[in-house]
Amino acid sequence: MISIRNEKTTDVAAREHLLDVAYGRVRFTKPSEQVRRGRLAAEGLSLVAAEGGCVVGTVRLWHVETSEGAKALLLGPLAVHPDYRCKGLGAQLMQRAIRNARMRGHKAVLLVGDPEYYGRFGFSAEKTGNLVMPGDCDAHRVLALELVDGALDGASGAVIAAGKPVPSRRARFAPTIAVEDFAAVSHAA
Questions:
Q1: Mean pLDDT for each 10-residue chunk of the chain (189 residues)?
Q2: pTM to 2 decimal places
Q3: Do the strands 54-66 and 71-75 form a parallel or antiparallel pair, or are they unpaired?
Q4: CATH superfamily of this structure's domain 2-188
């Protein structure tokens, strides 16, 4: 049976392996990764889907803001192991991530992705036309979901990291570390 739960420190290696399987090395070049790099994931907003002791799905949320001051979360990466795709697991992870963000009082979620897939969760490019992601990013793939109506009214500017930075002595873990991971990593090295 597959369960969706908050990510634990012991999930870090399995999550990284899953992301390598799902995306390969190109994941480190994506515009969203450029925003996340060097930052801790938003506390309590990293989820995994697990079957037995195996991580088969993952999604995380990160604090961001625009250069003009609008605040939001950035969703990603969302990944499901190839053996578990097309079974609704990605949708379950998305729904839980959105629900958790709403319950924690966040007002909006951004992501870079396929409008056809993410549109069913309420994401659209309606309010992202004046937002700029780093690197080579197709503007039609920058999507948003307002958790509070009007949260992104007038949002514009570059999307930049707003979360806690990874402490410098552990920066080599920057693309992968969550707030919950840091305590274990700092004691492991």
A1: 94 95 92 94 96 95 94 97 95 98 98 96 97 92 97 96 83 48 35
A2: 0.87
A3: antiparallel
A4: Gcn5-related N-acetyltransferase (GNAT) (3.40.630.30)
